[in-house]
Amino acid sequence: MPHFLAPPFDLPDGRDARLVKHLEDDDWASATTLLRDVVTPTTTEWKWLVLLAYARFRDAADVLPDELVDASREALQLLHRAMANGAPHDDVAPFLEAVERTLDQLSRGEEALLAKLGPGDDPKALSDEELESVCFLVERANPARAAKLFAALAARQGPLATAARARSALALARSGAFEAAKPELEDVLTKDWSKRPLSDERLALEAAETTLLEHATGAEFVALWHLAEARGTALGFPFPSAWPHQERLFDKCLSLRDITRARALAQRMEGERPELPEKLAERFRAVRLEQV
Quick one: DSSP state of residue 277? Predict the structure, then answer.
């Protein structure tokens, strides 16, 4: 008997073959991107809903653990919608139970960490790794609070200090206090990141560069861009590497009418990504028609 999620999926515009390829490659990010273009708030095709829930959950579980709580919650919503629209309960139930179990474990872990955070956000009872986890947890709802906790982690001068300093400034900027965060963001760029080999640490540097660029114009923007590119080349981390940073900087280039740079970013994203959101692809097509 074929699996209940076996193709055909009857996705629009011949997407079935692309989705099968992404699933065979365990490319959950590309599968999620493709499915988000077809699943809407009114979608009743239960197989599409279950596929999106699975791809989103697996992408977070395998690659983006910081997003696993949100991914689990989204997957639960999608699975309940799927069952309300005819998905076979006995087939969906094992996956539903696995997601519920994961979310419960994560929630209990988060509650335990927050309980160890002392009055007035005194983090002395937390290890460096626990404090870093609390910072990411708090940042979802209160980036200003997270900025202070990241600063406390940086003050410990441990292995996580360099990236924590960058993330403290980034959280402060996300809270709406960019001018207060700017001196620290600029200072982050002066540090020696060659000793930070991990990609998530270098992404903290790239996030600082991206945030500064989003608030720059004219000669300052061009100078910052060249510095970021040179630093990325030196670190073997071509700027910009992260997909969200690429998209944010594409938007910034368009706002500055820097069409040449926007086109270069579009070409790079098309070359690097197996799947693009349709709305983003449409914007790429439009920018090619712009007169420089």
Answer: -
